[in-house]
Amino acid sequence: MYVESPEIKENIKISDLIDQLSLTAFNARKLGEVAKICYKMVKDKATVFLTLAGAMVPAGMRNIINTFIERKIVSVLISTGANVVHELAEALGFRHKIISSSDFNLDNSNLNRVYDVLIETSAFEAIENFIEKLLNDLNKNGVKEKISSYELIWEIGKRINGKSFLKSAYEKSIPIVSPTLHDSIIGLQLSVLSNLCIDYTKDIKLLLDLCFKAKKSGIIIIGGGVPKNFALQSMLLAEGFDYAVQITTDSPHFGGLSGATLEEAKSWCKLKKNAETATVYCDATIVLPLIAVYILEKLKTD
Amino acid sequence: MYVESPEIKENIKISDLIDQLSLTAFNARKLGEVAKICYKMVKDKATVFLTLAGAMVPAGMRNIINTFIERKIVSVLISTGANVVHELAEALGFRHKIISSSDFNLDNSNLNRVYDVLIETSAFEAIENFIEKLLNDLNKNGVKEKISSYELIWEIGKRINGKSFLKSAYEKSIPIVSPTLHDSIIGLQLSVLSNLCIDYTKDIKLLLDLCFKAKKSGIIIIGGGVPKNFALQSMLLAEGFDYAVQITTDSPHFGGLSGATLEEAKSWCKLKKNAETATVYCDATIVLPLIAVYILEKLKTD
Amino acid sequence: MYVESPEIKENIKISDLIDQLSLTAFNARKLGEVAKICYKMVKDKATVFLTLAGAMVPAGMRNIINTFIERKIVSVLISTGANVVHELAEALGFRHKIISSSDFNLDNSNLNRVYDVLIETSAFEAIENFIEKLLNDLNKNGVKEKISSYELIWEIGKRINGKSFLKSAYEKSIPIVSPTLHDSIIGLQLSVLSNLCIDYTKDIKLLLDLCFKAKKSGIIIIGGGVPKNFALQSMLLAEGFDYAVQITTDSPHFGGLSGATLEEAKSWCKLKKNAETATVYCDATIVLPLIAVYILEKLKTD
Amino acid sequence: MYVESPEIKENIKISDLIDQLSLTAFNARKLGEVAKICYKMVKDKATVFLTLAGAMVPAGMRNIINTFIERKIVSVLISTGANVVHELAEALGFRHKIISSSDFNLDNSNLNRVYDVLIETSAFEAIENFIEKLLNDLNKNGVKEKISSYELIWEIGKRINGKSFLKSAYEKSIPIVSPTLHDSIIGLQLSVLSNLCIDYTKDIKLLLDLCFKAKKSGIIIIGGGVPKNFALQSMLLAEGFDYAVQITTDSPHFGGLSGATLEEAKSWCKLKKNAETATVYCDATIVLPLIAVYILEKLKTD
Question: For chain D, which domains are there?
Fold first, then answer.
């Protein structure tokens, strides 16, 4: 098979460009392979796990996640606590601001920085109040000792008015599992105000159940971290994923999980030996929107 | 201040070489700065948080962690679940094997790969048995619903015979907090065999308490991830760390937490505005042994 | 200014998506900024330097380079010798092949590997023959001692029949300066067969001249390396570039040129103090096609 | 073979620590392997090529390079022009300064920045004067048209009074080949003041000759770039190197030369199929001093 250099033209469809890139090399080819495997999982009606690490919500990827959930392209979202918290901030009307480079090393105690994005401290105060009220509600309903992360996040989504993937997940009954929810302002508030413990054994059971019931299964890994491992390890007792893709900026040669190849996941039997896999080494803020358009365009034309 | 090129000689002490490197540039200088700040925290009798992410135990760093705990150089260890699990495997007599490159894409269902290291599946079976017995013990003692990660890890350490930092931590009363313990074979086993929920609210309270009580505080961050954030966020309600260093292979310019600069942590008030900080961008397997020798040599000569 | 999360839809134009990404964060925003500055240079009729490092021709980017030259979007190309050699191979009818992962550590002395691309050794034998004939021609025409790289590359382009950016550059009188042409099979062949020396002093004079004459000037840096520095240093005696963008996978924090920020270039006066700049940290095989489409679409609609 | 976790003690010799690290994993093990292969080449009396890219002189590595040359540990140095220029600046009495982070985005037209190092513009004026005089001298001696880079650098070294590896190389008759010497202030000055062309065909012949005559040969690659390729391609006509190590911060998965694996070099026959190789992914400012001590200590004790 030969490398085919794409001819660039105005008004080329994104899905067509990506198909062309799948005949180039390096990470452009990998982008093409990742997009094709993602579409294959969806077309194949596989149970699709989407894992989310890295500050994807502050970086503006929330509407894409929402589209995946609203259109039921994914079956479950496994996310860091930070993305849940920042999504809640947006849902409560707070905004992430673009930082100008001159403000980079700012000395303003009311602004918190995530690389080139800022968010006001008042957003977190609003979240603390929201969580306090939620705890009171739960308490009244007898939830005092334990709750799984996905149930807690549904309770949050139920109470949101604006557009948010937290709300969509509740409405569409898509679970959002957050194995690091305690590692966030929500977890801190729970600790300070209550003895309510996030019961991850129940989250694990949910994922195990999804794994066992799936006829075909796929996983889209964004950025590695705990969501990657937590989703993959739920396949240890089942057969392994049929499809797996990852978008990461980490490197294999440092030995960490986030950069680990999908071949490594095969040695642990988290993927089937013959699973279709591809990894693209790239910032997900670039790749994720492209893949989202790819899936939507292919769904329409197929 | 000028860059001073080190004169290389036989039998130079590691601490002397590192002091010389602190007058060079790029990451050699940063290694020097990190080492100096680490020693400063220790000499200053600060409460030292050590956070551990990345597969440091499979990579052979366990005896260094043990030295830090046995000699009470650190006050608390915040570790991924994976490092706890692999340490338990070694404590139970299993060994990590060096992979030869020809075995890299092996097809052996009894061998699990972590980059260039292998471990037998039987190690995890032994861990499952160990955890099953432990659960029975805890059950008899009335621990059925909730336990913090640090108490669970002390219970593990108590039952270990061989040399291990899990045992040392128990013996020296150094807590090991593992905010991702559920994201490991231990968490999986807990889910399958019991309703015992790891109560991270209690871990958070322990860390908050350490933060409040510390006269001076320092943090040594190895590899980022949840341990980094979990340790840093425990300072949100206190004054911020006085000293902070990190060893990471991630980059700031992808916006993720593991590569985030310590200046960013200052904007969140997790570090004091005038905290002494340094970051070295390097595989911790190279930097950690050097820094450990540095601290021990300086402790001896000062 | 707020982060605006893009709404993903089918059939969105690439230039519209990129404009939306310029309101997100991390490298997606940078991609947006790079694209906008590139278009600005072109619209502003600036003298545009395009520098090319990394194996962009083996990776399938040759038609994009050709479009930039044929449509006179760039005024001069500064390329590694390797890209010239691989382009010559394609122009002579040889093809780069996509490697299947099972062939990765192949033991075939007739196949040469560039990451996930292969090329047959016979391609280089054909290039050696081509260069031998060219040397004879030049010799007859009295070129025996010295020739600049751009004149030598025009002589190559003149003798090519198929479609190639080497041919287009000759036809459109766009110089291709290759400051590392001696660091390639062409350089090796010159050494073995002749005393013809590549006279880079003449290349430098060409670039200095372009810098002096430019009313406005811009530079698009792909991948760093010698092409980056060679182009930038030609501004040392002039006023500095007005626009500068770079696409790189290197990091600033290792201190090397390829990852160096454009702020650093300002301290050397290679860019004007108020130059518009942006850097996107990404594999150019992904970013370059997107930016090319962006420029073409904007040229059409403006 | 098992991973052996090093026991850290005060006053451990650097060579002993590195030997211990060779039994760990990830890049610590690679550091150990690189060090051992380096020592093996030296002990085996191989012809050793040392290639140097990245701003190693500004970063304070010049005395280490000098030790390698003075003690004839290496047979030839292949360096970027930038390292030659910065070494000349130091030899002429100018110093590189450590930048404080508050000066990072300085606006001072007399200071030029290389990441966290500064150098005054006056250093380059002194170099321009030095080169002008040198050109006059060469002119008087009839060198008007062409000179190889290694001869030009010897001419520079001959005229230096202070301690410098340029001087040592001249005194010890070790050639310094600089395939990008024209890509530096020296090249710029040559272009502006003369028609003297750097004759790289002669440099290539020197390297080819070294390759042909070597009974055993080894290569130590620091940082990739043109020096890496220029050295490796000189083996294309000979048998291939017997030993090869590289220290790089680049990654294989972006397809560029600087991060390319040494397996890739084998596919081009630049290394023997059974060559002993190792790559450590690390900033050379950390690894190079350690390896230098390793070689010296082993030479003493063996």
Answer: 45-95+122-284 (3.40.910.10)
